[in-house]
Amino acid sequence: MRIAVYPGSFDPVTKGHLNIIERAAKLFDKLIVCVMINHEKKPLFTRLEREDQLRRVTAHLSNVEIDSYDDLLAKYAQEHQCCTIIKGLRAGSDFEKEFQMAMINRKLNPNLESLFLTAEHQFMYLSSSTVKELAYYGAELEDFLPREIIDEFMNRIRNKEA
Ligand code: ADP
Question: How far apart are CA 131 and CA 153, in angstroms?
Fold first, then answer.
């Protein structure tokens, strides 16, 4: 069984993430979407909230599982028999950082490949932080966030502002 892991903050999951998930799920027997905990960042949503949002927006994908982890990704991959790390590449910003991460992960676990999927053109500049910024200015979010999570996202933004 070929298992891949797609790691990220997913704070919150965007349509760009979902597009990568849907495409990667077709390439593997199982895809684990893993919320990676970054203790240096103060997230908008808790680990469990992000897991729950991911479960809801991927409910139509039978070979996708959701998990979370707060240690090295290479270690997670080994523990869960993952052969491949999936990454999404957007315009400009991602390449250098992702290239470095791929080198490190391969050094830590030589059997682990990193597979880069290019962002779909309409999501090329989309990030969770852009969506947060758009929300502060009251922009429509249908094009950027899965509809299942728009209300709770807006509520969280409003509570944070209050
Ligand atoms: P961000 O907070 O910048 O959106 P994440 O840590 O949640 O980033 O991203 C997880 C992974 O998804 C990374 O590999 C990132 O490059 C990728 N990704 C994020 N947004 C998009 C997008 N719009 N299209 C394609 N890949 C994306």
Answer: 10
